[in-house]
Specification:
By secondary structure, the protein is an alpha/beta fold. The chain is built from 17 helices and 20 strands. The longest helix is centred in the middle third of the chain and has 16 residues. The termini are far apart.
Length: 515
């Protein structure tokens, strides 16, 4: 055993009378990469927030470098050599990359209070190059992609030279290449003697990067030790308390020939071009493509959030007006966006208010518009229970107090209360655990059984292959290929996304085995 750098000793924490952590104890060695895994609400982020000075434990304590450690604030934790890279980004989008990275330690012009901007840009450029992060230090963060913003958050933490780095779902917005580069950086930091706590629901990544693993369930440590002793199946069973024999639920419905959504010649300069797509009742259609391929832009146009230059969108045979989300909702379209915090939730409001946000008119008296609060609460409670939402009283607990996965369940619940004809889901399983993913897949199946159509956007080909009836592949604003379920093949779908073998004639129908 190496040098013990940090230790949790019988740490407990409760929220709203519910135990988030219960008697948690484990150690972190110097130069170790420790994987911390568990379902949403298992206590991972709470544990890290206690180490990072955001929260204080109700019971127990911590030891840092052999001394009692009781951080009062995140600044105290940072001064003690601990940096926390949160899942939800903490960046100033109106400032540049360089300004965000050096936010509290700007270089000055001599003894004056003025910032030495040329030195700031030069130092940041050298630092970004050492991390192989290819964007300009002068770029405003608001102009960066979600993945690039995640890298800026990571670079900001790495620039502090901390002894312990806490990573909470760092790869959820990263491409495969960016993830590979991050892992290279983590290994280099490990060689320099840094300790890293790596939280992720992507168990394959945990297996590849971590030396040891600690598994939490319902706020308690269920197991831990060398990574070699914990194959993925064992990690899953310890996380969820049961065996998950099938990652994807069995499909129980065959799509009908009746069309729910029909898109004809949809296009907008620089975003999407001449898109034709149908979704039938009971059908789950997957949309796959690389970052910037046009999938999200298309979804936002269908829902009426973003404009389009040409084309027609028909819902159950009736043309939808442009730029009118209200008409889309009234017609039965539900849209789960990829940015739940900014676009999917009212973070300061109770869970009940969020779940009922779309459906309030249905629970209001026709003339007085007085809401039937009891009926609404009973139905929202049913939805919350069906999603296995981990919360206290949904009438009082705010959305921001929930874990990321449980926040996503609230977003989904909001639309389930509406009983939609078409459900558009943009990366709905990003950042949630394997058990919660299964529940999302099950919801899609259940909606399909009721005759709804589902458009499922995901960057994970395997999950699209596991739940979809068809997969359409996007590239540079176009639908490049379409695969029916019998023709699903991981390599063929990936090759299509990279346009391999079809650049010469995108309109020619090429069998999957020719790509």
């Amino acid at each position: 055993m190496g040098e013990i750098l940090f230790e949790y000793r019988r740490v407990s924490k409760s929220f709203f009378g519910i135990k988030a952590l219960n008697n948690v104890s484990f150690e972190i060695e110097r130069g170790q990469i420790l994987g911390l895994i568990g379902e949403n609400g298992a206590g991972k982020s709470t544990l890290m927030n206690i180490m990072g000075g955001v929260l204080r434990p109700d019971e127990g304590g911590m030891i840092l470098k052999g001394e009692p450690y009781t951080p009062a604030t995140p600044a105290h934790a940072a001064a003690s050599g601990i940096e926390f890279i949160h899942q939800e980004l903490n960046l100033f989008t109106n400032l540049s990359v360089a300004e965000n990275i050096a936010i509290n330690r700007f270089p000055r012009r001599g003894s004056s209070p003025f910032i030495n901007k040329s030195l700031l840009l030069k130092e940041t450029q050298l630092f970004l190059e050492s991390l192989q992060m290819n964007f300009s230090p002068s770029t405003l963060v608001e102009h960066l992609s979600p993945g690039e913003r995640q890298l800026v958050e990571i670079a900001k933490a790495l620039s502090t030279n901390a002894d312990i780095l806490l990573f909470d779902e760092p790869t959820t917005s990263l491409t495969a290449k960016e993830t590979e580069n991050l892992f290279r950086i983590l290994k280099r930091l490990q060689e320099e003697g840094k300790s890293i706590v790596y939280i992720s629901h992507i168990l394959g990544d945990v297996r590849d990067i971590a030396d040891e693993v600690v598994i939490l369930r319902d706020g308690q440590v269920m197991g831990g030790g060398p990574m070699a002793d914990f194959p993925i199946n064992r990690m899953i069973s310890l996380m969820v308390g049961r065996e998950i024999d099938n990652i994807f639920p069995v499909k129980t419905v065959t799509p009908t020939e009746e069309t729910v959504l029909e898109v004809q010649g949809l296009g907008e300069t620089g975003m999407v071009r001449d898109i034709n797509l149908r979704v039938n009742k009971g059908e789950i259609v997957g949309m796959f493509g690389l970052m910037g391929s046009g999938r999200t832009e298309f979804a936002r146009m269908v829902f009426g959030v973003d404009p389009y230059g040409e084309g027609t969108i028909l819902l159950k045979g009736k043309e939808l007006p442009r730029l009118d989300p209200g008409a889309s909702i009234g017609g039965g379209i539900a849209f789960i966006t990829e940015n739940r915090r900014e676009e999917g939730l009212l973070m300061d409001y109770p869970i009940l208010d969020n779940i009922s946000l779309v459906s309030l008119p249905e629970y209001s008296a026709p003339l007085t518009r007085i809401v039937d609060n009891r009926k609404l609460y009973n139905k929202a409670s049913e939805i919350a229970a069906s999603l296995r939402l981990k919360s206290a009283d949904i009438r009082t607990q705010s959305a921001k107090s929930l874990s990321g996965g449980n926040q996503q369940k609230v977003v989904i619940g909001k639309w389930l209360l509406q009983d939609p004809s078409l459900l558009i889901m943009d990366e709905p399983t990003r950042g949630i655990d394997v058990g919660a993913k299964y529940e999302v897949y099950l919801i899609m199946n259940q909606l399909a059984e009721r005759g709804s159509g589902v458009l499922f956007i995901s960057s994970e080909v395997e999950e699209l292959m596991g739940v979809c009836d068809r997969i359409v592949v996007w590239s540079r604003g176009e639908i490049i290929r379409e695969f029916s379920r019998p023709d699903f093949a991981l390599e063929d779908i990936m090759r299509a996304a990279f346009r391999q073998g079809i650049e010469s004639d995108l309109q020619r129908e090429v069998p999957a085995n020719e790509i």
